[in-house]
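thought: fold this chain, then report.
action: predict
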Amino acid sequence: MADSVLVRCPVCRREHSYTAPVYPCGCGAPVALPLLTSVAATQVRHRTWAGSWISVRCPACGRVDEWPQPELGCGCGTTLRVPVAHSSAPPPPPVPHRPVAPQPVPRPPFRPVTIRTAQDARNAAAHYLRWLGFTDIRVAERTPASGIDLRGPGIVAHVDPSTSPAGPRAVETLWLNGLNESVAAVCFALAGYLPQARARADELALPLFVLDLAGTPSAVNDAAETMIREPR
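observation:
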């Protein structure tokens, strides 16, 4: 079970309730980041790629993986880095896990929304996320500077309605926005993606979808296929 802690902003002194993200280990067990309650959160002034990851050991199989360093955005505009405990205990012996067959989640047939404008593309992507099971999706009337077109509990999305394939910078910016807000991120594009963007998304496990003009999204990578299969 994920830990929840109170995080105080060192700038405005506001307190936030923060729940540790849970990630899937390669063995299938959930890995909840062990948050430290005795160490105060710190302000993120300069972000580096190496500093955005942390090594955490799976309590089930002992495997050590790199996961995103937990961060939290305060209402005053400060980005807070939440401290995580480093365990020095030896890894436990492997525990065999009996495979569990995935249970299909019944969904009604998807009814696409025809795309004629950029706003139609955003609405079509929002309609698809609701169909997948995400609730309270809010749609921006125009793309803000952050590039986040859709927001909902636990998810943000970028929708690229241009006639040029999306590049790796759009993928990385979207991923960092999701990382900063501790939510999942997903990208939709009308014209597809450059090979570099697809490769970067695969490295970050960020789902990519292509929208056709009829408003039907198609999964581009494995992360998108997984997102479709996982029940909400």
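thought: worth noting. The chain has two domains: 4-81, 118-229.
final: tokens above.
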